[in-house]
């Protein structure tokens, strides 16, 4: 792969402190999510419905994608500003050729204090059995695997490409064996689609090394036909599980954790609920997202991104890029979920929200 001549390291003095940036609501930049591809081998009905993402859909050209060097350069600058966690996502990130090479480059980054950066990945698990070892060897710390049902018919109706549950479970097992844990299993719950699987999923992953998390169906993008009635509130999820498998709430691991933790009273492990719709966590949202072609988004529900690729490919220096990224964060006002109403799913002021498959979770 051609090296980007601009990919010089941002000056980070070891032993120094990060140049912390806070936004207009006093939220510090801490997490970076990078989408490495807009493509996916699944067509989950709530994310990439076939009617829109069909054979004629034009995905990005390879030349438009940020190179691994460009991604690493942006990540290095973000780390100099206090980012300590990087999550790779997509589309399906394991479809990006040579992803382990990128993982290796990111794993070599150090915070200004000299600490390792936490590198994680969100995947549909379809290629995990094959790739887990190489990813671990490259420095990946953890994976989150999306799995919406244990019932093949329901799962296939969600992924819409006839992909069986067993293959995802096999991928999860390999990821666990190679040490990519603790593995979180993420289930998006949509009423009328897989809400009957809440308790079976909980029972299956109870007493296992995996942490199951239930995610409320969100109004991301403009293609999934989201309706408030299709959201199963986390409170309902907890009450359904608690009725059969008694639970108690657990304190957060760290301030601003998006998942609320619960554990089984009999010591059978823990679960989490992510209530993006019914209990927004905008007040503690410390995430910035970079799309596959290098646009910076300060909110999952944004309509516009900032074109960092143009700056990079026009020869912008590290100092300039750093100033631009910090400036964008300082001006950030986003709190979409706090302001959400059941009607905001409509296209706002004629602008389309970005799709989940474009920016990642
Ligand atoms: N393809 C990978 C996967 O499925 O894990 C990574 C990208 S996917 C966009 C990231 C996460 O977003 C997945 O857990 C997926 O279930 C979730 N997701 C997609 N659309 C969603 C929606 N409308 N509401 C809630 N979560 C959604
Ligand atoms: Fe693909 Fe993940 Fe979206 Fe499903 S949720 S279509 S696996 S990107
Ligand atoms: Fe963060 Fe935007 Fe989600 Fe609020 S709506 S938690 S600001 S990504």
Task: Based on the model shown, name its key terms.
single chain; 361 residues; alpha/beta; TIM Barrel; twelve-stranded mixed beta sheet; 12 strands; 28% helix; disordered N terminus; binds S-adenosylmethionine; binds iron/sulfur cluster
Molecular structure report:
It is built from eleven helices and twelve strands. It is an alpha/beta fold. The chain has a single domain, classed as Aldolase class I (TIM Barrel). It has a twelve-stranded mixed beta sheet with strand order 7-8-9-6-5-4-3-2-1-10-11-12. Strand 2, helix 2 and strand 3 form a beta-alpha-beta unit. The protein starts with 30 loop residues before the first strand and ends with a helix. The structure holds S-adenosylmethionine and iron/sulfur cluster (2 copies).
User: Which structural class fits the helix and strand makeup?
Assistant: alpha/beta
Number of helices: 11
Kindly state the percentage of residues in helix.
25-40%
Q: Which fold name is given in CATH as the topology?
A: TIM Barrel
Number of DSSP E strands = 12
C-alpha Rg (nearest Å): 20 Å
Amino-to-carboxy terminus distance:
28 Å
Uncertain parts: 1-11, 342-350
Strand content: 15-25%
Q: Which CATH-level-2 architecture?
A: Alpha-Beta Barrel
The SSE order reads EHEHEHEHHEHEHEEEEEEHHHH
Strand order of the largest sheet: 7-8-9-6-5-4-3-2-1-10-11-12
Molecular shape: globular
pLDDT averaged residue by residue: 91
Domain module tally: 1
CATH class category: Alpha Beta
Present as ligands are: S-adenosylmethionine, iron/sulfur cluster
Q: So, the CATH homologous superfamily?
A: Aldolase class I
**Main sheet makeup:** 12 strands, mixed
């Amino acid at each position: 792969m051609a090296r980007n001549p601009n990919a010089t390291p941002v000056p980070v003095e070891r032993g120094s402190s990060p140049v912390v940036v806070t936004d207009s609501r006093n939220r510090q930049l801490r997490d970076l999510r990078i989408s490495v591809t807009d493509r996916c081998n699944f067509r989950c009905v709530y994310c990439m419905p076939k009617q829109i993402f069909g054979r004629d859909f034009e995905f990005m050209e390879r030349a438009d994608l940020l190179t691994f060097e460009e991604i690493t350069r942006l990540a290095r600058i973000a780390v100099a500003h206090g980012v300590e966690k990087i999550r790779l996502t997509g589309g399906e990130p394991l479809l990006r050729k040579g992803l382990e090479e990128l993982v290796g480059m990111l794993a070599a980054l150090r915070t200004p204090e000299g600490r390792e950066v936490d590198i994680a990945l969100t995947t549909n698990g379809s290629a995990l059995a094959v790739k887990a070892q190489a990813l671990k060897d490259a420095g990946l710390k953890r994976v989150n695997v999306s799995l919406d049902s244990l019932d093949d018919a329901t799962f296939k109706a969600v992924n819409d490409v006839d992909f069986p549950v067993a293959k995802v479970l096999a991928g999860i097992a390999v990821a666990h064996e190679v040490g990519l844990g603790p593995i979180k299993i993420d289930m998006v719950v949509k009423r009328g689609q897989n809400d009957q699987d809440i308790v079976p999923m909980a029972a299956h992953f109870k007493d296992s090394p995996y942490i199951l998390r239930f995610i409320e169906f969100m109004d991301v993008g403009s293609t999934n036909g989201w309706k408030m009635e299709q959201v199963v509130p986390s409170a309902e999820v907890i009450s359904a599980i608690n009725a059969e498998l008694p639970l108690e709430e657990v304190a957060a691991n760290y301030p601003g954790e998006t998942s609320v933790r619960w554990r089984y009273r009999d010591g059978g492990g823990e679960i989490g609920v992510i209530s993006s719709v019914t209990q927004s966590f905008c007040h503690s949202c410390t995430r910035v997202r970079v799309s596959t072609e290098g646009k910076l988004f300060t909110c999952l529900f944004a309509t516009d991104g900032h074109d960092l690729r143009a700056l990079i490919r026009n020869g912008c220096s590290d100092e300039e890029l750093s100033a631009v990224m910090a400036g964008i964060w300082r001006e950030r006002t986003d709190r979409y979920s706090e302001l959400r109403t059941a009607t905001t799913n409509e296209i706002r002021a004629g602008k389309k929200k970005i799709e989940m498959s474009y920016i990642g979770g």
